[in-house]
Amino acid sequence: MTKYRSHLQDAHSMNLTNSPARRYSPSLQVEQLISKLAQDETGKRQHYRPIYSLHKWWARRPGTLFRSIILLATHPELRETLLQTDAQGNLKPNAPYFCDYNLNDHIILDPFMGGGTTLVEANRMGARTVGCDLNPVAYWIVRENLKTIDIERLDAYFQQISDTAGAQIRKFYRTRCVHCQGEAETLYAFWIRSVPCLNCGQPILLHKRCLLNEGASRNRPLSPANPATVFCPACLQLFEWGGSAPAQCPHCKNRFDPRDGNYDRGYYRCRCADKPMNLLETLRRGAVLSDMLLALEYWCPTCQARLYKSPDSDDDGRWRQVETLFEEQEPALILPDTPIPVGTSSRRWIQHGYRQYRDLFNKRQLLAFNILIRAIHQIEEPEYRYSFFTVFSNMLEYNNMMTPYNYPHRKLHHLFNYHAMPLTTTPVESHVWGVGEEGTGTFVNCYQRYRRAKLYCLQPFERYKNRAGQVVTHYTQQERVGAILVNDFESLRRTERSALLLCGDSARLDALPDESVDLVITDPPYYDNVHYSELSNFFYVWLARLIRQPCFQSELVPTESEAVVNRGQGKEEADYLRLLTAVFRECHRVLKAEGQLIFTFHHTNPRAWWTVFGAIQQGGFRVVDFFPVQSEYRVNPHIRQKQALDMDLVLICHKQARPYIPLSHTPEDCLQRAEQIIGQYAQNGNRQLLYLHFVGELLRSASCSSGDWTSSQEWFLSALQAFDRLHPNSRSETTEQACQLALFESHEAYHAPR
User: Fold this and answer.
1) Which residues contact 334 (CB under 8 A, 6 or more apart)?
2) Are the C-beta atoms of residues 475 and 551 closer than 8 Å to each other?
3) Are 397 and 441 in contact (CB under 8 A)?
4) For a tag site, which of 229, 383, 595, 754 has the least CB within 10 Å?
5) What are the counts of helices (DSSP H) followed by strands (DSSP E) for the chain?
6) How confident is the model at residue 745 (pLDDT cuts 50, 70, 90)?
7) What does 414-464 look like in DSSP terms, one character per residue?
8) CA-CA distance, 246 to 234, in Å (whole number)?
9) 604 confidence band (pLDDT: 50, 70, 90)
């Protein structure tokens, strides 16, 4: 096993922590290679690091990034050699990044453990880990990530569930093929919502388009040879359309454009009025949304095809049976009848009449869920029972009545596709259990995700693309993911590969002694970007009814100490600063004198950056180094078609008591230092990269200022505005616009500046 000597053993020999000759960030070449690896992983996370598809978490940072952060912190001698390329631009598989490591003499803390990336990557390399999060869903996900299980036993229990629950659930989705009249199974049920018109009271169908897909084949353009399936807005019958507008319904002869609907951006149209009417105003006056089954997409084993149909009398009768069965069983069912709390994002659901979490599911879904729950409760071994409740929880994101549909690709989006709570007027209901390999987000599909995650834990790997675009897989020889979960710090200290997981306020880490951890590596909440408690309540209200753990005792996820700006919950910037500062102060207490606090952050609002910097200073730290890294996939819906920062800035902080060399804080000198790092690479479309280095230099100089000058928010904001004056270029790339910061504009090999 490769074991490099750690700088932590030599830290006391360092005199100046911020010497111009001493940098803690990677070289520019390594920085760019980390970015490329991270972007590739984010684009296909379930293939590059399956462990992070075990359960949904928001704004999860790439494992490649955090492996790099940990290795650079523990082995600073690798800052120029961590990743290397050959003459053809391919990554070298024998570079230090791909070696096996044993960090069993390190204790690494993540006070905002979220989805567990820091802990998983550190555990994989043998470190002892401590993780804390206020959110019980985060605690549970990390626990499931790190626990060890036997795959054969897991498979045996899945077969047990399949034989009981699977067989029962599939009966709910039977239908008949319109072509061969044989028995088939519904893959997706297409629903459409309606509301009584504010003026005339007639039911109005709320749809943005009349398309069920954009062609049978997603790889071919819409044409008569690859027709789309559409519904007629007059008679609601289905037919195929070759793309020539307008379409004419063969059933009622109605002519219309399938790309149009009568609802958009909160307004609907009715023949009784000349102008569109506001849906929310209609609901405020007492109207209620109704759901109607519009169409079925099904799998016919005889035809061996995915086909569409309008619901027939048998389908209507089957739905009436579901409603009757639900009414009979409702008193005994486990249902999330918790009221939806008011928040920035959840307000949308409440305004449209969805008051309790159970309102987000239809009766067939709730019946199927309870069949699964009863089958999982039959598993005697608690850890395997917990595994399947985790699978069940992960499945909920795809099995609800708010899930939007990906029309071109003929599959479901997941509910939180935009880190928010969407409201769709054309929900698509998936087969809860699943039909073979077809469908998205079914119980079978989510079980396979869980299983692949645990197989990855047994033999982790790294993946990257070579110059030819081929994905190369490099397996580690001795690393693995799997922790011994302990209950106290002394057990952590005595036990190799152990993990101490805490669910509570990271501002009070009473379980940890002073100066007891070597590194604090984390990914704190990004100001107001993601409202974790609001979003995770969707899972929490189910898990709290299924799992007996102390952290699931409250009605909802605790929010009082959550460090976010959420004006829907009455949380302002000052609250974010106060709460984040309290956590950093506690990190200062438990971090060893020569340890480092390293975290990632990004935001388009300069005030967010200055607020985080305030927390760093008030927490007793100073920024001594930094490096930017690609954090979002180029076509990620969170950043596509909107102004967004798609790069993280990794901030490396030391305790203020450590000696340092003062830096000039003038924007001119900060830019000059950034240009010395970037060199000519800042030209030709990479000005944004220079800007991120400029921001980092501003934060570093503000931390390392001389005693006769104090930084301020006014200085920081004016310095940012000076960038365009000091480095004039195309106005389309100015900092004021905060456009996407893009690396590697071409999809070529891993070339980087040398």
Assistant:
1) 369, 370, 373, 545, 546
2) no
3) yes
4) 754
5) 20, 25
6) very low
7) PTTTTSS----SS-EEEPSS-BTTBSSS-HHHHHHHHHHHHHHHHS-EEEE
8) 14
9) confident
